[in-house]
Amino acid sequence: MTDIETAADIEAAAASWVLRLDRSPNDAKLKADLEAWMKDDNRRRGAFLQAEAAWAMLDQMPWPAREETLPHPVVIRAAERPPHRRQVLLGGLGLAVAAGAGVWALGRPDASYATVVGEIRKIPLGEGSVVAVNTDSQISVSMRSAQRRIRLESGEVWFQVAPDKDRPFVVEAGALRLQAQATAFSVRSLEGGAEILVSEGVVSASLRGLSPVSVAAGEKAVTTSGVISVQALGLEDIGRKLAWREGNIDLAGDSLAYAVSQFNRHNQRQLVISDHALSARKLYGVFHANDPEAFARAVEVSLGAPVFVRADHIDIGRRSALSS
């Protein structure tokens, strides 16, 4: 007899967790129990995220033909649909998740994914890892027997990396090279550099010709002018900065200027601060990233700043259309 949990055991348990959460999405104890379960084994978090993505896929597209092998990203901001398909499949979630995961696992070794403005996607990589692709971003994926390699072409991504000692997980963004095992971290392209946020584990970061630097959970690293700077940020702050994975913008004393920059990344209709005296005012709250008008109205109330809504942009601080 052995108490070692097999991959099949973990996948079955993950499918069960997804089903239970679907039935009781607001159960705080259930969520706490799930978090405890995932913390006990790094493989469990990857299996749960993959099962969750497969479950979401059941409502988002018809089953693929048997010969189809391309990985399918999950659009996080998909519109709500009638629940009948999930109800039909309630009794066979484990089978459904396994079938969906099989499609991704058989995906071609090289693929590219991109999001448009306002879109966020979650992509299971087939070996237990998951990547979330933020708005207006592009990545190239190469899954080989000796290495798992992702290149960030533009924008921002977050990874939950499954352990695999025989295949390093490598991320490239310009001159930056990251290597990780059983970690969770994000990478964002910046003008002339990149930003790394680590929420779990340790990531090795290096620039061409330089020795690698370790970036641990709760830390942020920024590359500028050929240098990697690491600073402590804290897991709570990192979690807020990664709220985009759920389609949110989480503010806790951030400036209006910062908030506007984040909303403008996610929307075609841009926010404009017409009264620059407001730029440094601090804001608190969690907002839907794709609803800039609701955010502007909240600013109007909290800061007493007039708001003027136009077809292509929203003025904050402008008192009337005649003042434009």
Written account of the structure:
By secondary structure, this protein is an alpha+beta fold. It folds into 3 domains: 1-106, no CATH class; 109-235, Jelly Rolls, CATH 2.60.120.1440; 247-323, Phage tail protein beta-alpha-beta fold (3-Layer(bab) Sandwich), CATH 3.55.50. The protein is 30% helix and 33% strand. It contains 8 helices and 20 strands. It has an 8-stranded antiparallel beta sheet with strand order 1-3-4-7-10-11-14-15, covered by helices on one side. The chain has a 7-stranded mixed beta sheet with strand order 2-5-6-8-9-12-13, with no helix packed on it. Strand 14 (219-224) and strand 15 form a beta hairpin. Helix 1 packs across helix 3 and helix 1 (7-23) crosses helix 5 (93-105). The longest helix is centred in the N-terminal third of the chain and has 19 residues, at 42-60. Mean pLDDT is 80; it is low at 59-71 and 78-107.
In short:
The chain is α+β, with helices and mostly antiparallel strands. 30% of the residues lie in helices and 33% in strands.
Strand content: 25-35%
The total of helices stands at: 8
Report the average pLDDT across residues.
Answer: 80
Main sheet makeup? 8 strands, antiparallel
Q: What is the count of β-strands?
A: 20
Structural class determined from secondary elements: alpha+beta
Number of separate domains: 3
Secondary-structure element order, N to C: HHHEHHEEEEEEEEEEEEEEHEHEEHEE
Q: Per the principal axes of the C-alpha atoms, what is the gross shape?
A: globular
Please state the second-level CATH architecture of the largest domain.
Sandwich
Annotated CATH topology of the largest domain: Jelly Rolls
What Rg, in angstroms, do the CA atoms define?
A: 21 Å
Terminal Cα span: 76 Å
Helix content: 25-40%
Runs in which pLDDT lies below 50 for 5 or more consecutive residues are: 59-71, 78-107
Organism: Asticcacaulis benevestitus DSM 16100 = ATCC BAA-896
Domain FecR protein: 113-203
Transmembrane segments: 88-107
GO molecular function, one term: sigma factor antagonist activity
